[in-house]
Design brief:
Length: 159
């Protein structure tokens, strides 16, 4: 199974110059906790989570309509392609301790997003099948790796 078979398509995104209330509204309206940040050509330049928005409002002491996405987004982007094996995305999530990966084409344009939730739901769908693409053991390992406490240095490097 490859990433393209499981990813969410038609992903909503924001831009770095948008205000955080715009990003929060996208998350609310689309029932998601993360939005990719793209440039004018829809190339992924960052990621923004609901937690990023909350922490920025707290640490910057501002209201969301006055804060720019660029002030809180993660600029270190890890991504995969639709052609990548699901195991590639899973390993990247584990190694980088992230729940979601933007899916990009060869030019870095956003074409989808894949989350740990997508992989877990696939494991559940496959539970009754003899041949499994995703096992519950793999999901458990991924969750454990993602949830592992990070050092302050690793957190600062990710920002």
């Amino acid at each position: 199974m490859n990433v393209g078979q499981l990813m969410t398509q038609n992903v909503r995104a924001c831009q770095a110059e948008d205000t955080m209330d715009t990003a929060a509204q996208l998350m609310w309206e689309n029932d998601c906790g993360c939005v990719p940040v793209v440039d004018a050509k829809r190339r992924v330049v960052g990621m923004l989570t609901d937690r990023d928005i909350c922490m920025a409002a707290y640490t910057q002491g501002g209201v969301l309509r006055a804060l720019r996405v660029s002030s809180a987004m993660s600029k270190q982007v890890h991504a995969c392609t639709p052609e990548d094996a699901l195991s590639v995305a899973e390993e990247l999530m584990r190694a980088k301790q992230i729940h979601r990966l933007p899916v990009v084409d060869a030019d870095g344009h956003l074409v989808g997003i894949i989350s740990l939730n997508d992989i877990a739901r696939e494991a559940e769908r496959e539970r009754a099948h003899a041949k499994k693409e995703v096992t519950t053991d793999e999901i458990g390992l991924a969750v454990a790796a993602i949830c592992k406490a990070r050092s302050a240095r690793a957190v600062a490097a990710a920002a």
